[in-house]
Amino acid sequence: MTVDPGWIEAANEAADLAGEALRRHFRAGLIAEGKEDASPVTLADREAEAILRGALKRRCPDHGLTGEEMPPDDPGARHVWLIDPIDGTRAFITGRPSFCTLIALLDEGVPVLGLIDQPVTGERWIGARGYSLRFRGNFGGSPGTRRGIALREAELSCTSPEMHDSVHRARFDRLASATRRTYWGGDAYAYGLLALGQIDVIAESSMKPWDWAALVPVIEAAGGCVTDWRGEALRQEGDGTVLALGDPALLREAVAALAE
């Protein structure tokens, strides 16, 4: 299927409105609270999610909505928006402009539209079924992943070593030893850089659906692929591992390095 252009417009409008709110709160000394999973949450998270929900519901009233901070709305609908108002809350509360707003549209559980927005730097990536990657940015960069390299030449990235338990860390380290070097940090922003050919491989674990759903259409539209660590399609009920590759030809070798 080709994504309805009206859905792309809805995602853009929602991101614009949420971005205005997030910029007001950025570096404003917000107090972070602890959630049950020990990750920080702020007033900005909740305000931005409420804005995203309102904007998407106005444009697409028959679509469901699921977000990180609030209860789901009609999650059994064929089309469901999956949103994360601030991916990288730790970056946000420490004043680092590497957090992102993530908006995904699922068609019967499959991500068909993804938007990554960095409202401080003004960068935005949009991937949608039937379209090439759209990128807007102020610091250069062209849409498209890096192809034709060996795994030993690849730049590997991961948000934090803390996201891996001991078993996943051992598997990640095997992949790291097979690549050129490893960078830590970035959250969803790193996936945007992969879509620009700046990073080649990202391997993460303990990811929730709202963490990865928007990333899949973006990376695929740029020419890459996103799977779990077994090389299989990501599922909402999956094991939380995510492997993103700029060059799909590296998949077999990367999965072999990550094998249990």
Molecular structure report:
This protein has 260 residues and is an alpha+beta fold. It is 31% helix and 24% strand. It has helices spanning 5-25, 43-59, 89-93, 166-177, 188-194, 209-212, 215-221, 251-258; strands at 33-34, 40-41, 64-67, 79-87, 100-107, 110-118, 123-128, 134-136, 155-158, 181-184, 201-204, 225-227, 242-245. It has a 6-stranded mixed sheet, with helices on both faces. α1 (5-25) packs antiparallel against α2 and α4 crosses α8 (251-258). The radius of gyration is 17 Å and the shape is globular. It starts with a helix and ends with a helix.
CA-CA gap between termini: 36 Å
As a percent range, the share of helical residues equals 25-40%
Provide the succession of SSEs.
HEEHEEHEEEEEHEHEHHEEH
Shape: globular
Unreliable stretches, pLDDT < 50, 5 or more residues? none
Q: How much of the residues is beta strand, in percent?
A: 15-25%
Q: What order do the strands of the largest sheet run in, or round the barrel if closed?
A: 3-4-5-6-7-8
Compute the number of strand runs: 13
* Class of secondary structure makeup: alpha+beta
- Using only C-alpha atoms, the radius of gyration works out to 17 Å
Main sheet record: 6 strands, mixed
Mean of residue pLDDT values: 95
So how many helices?
Answer: 8
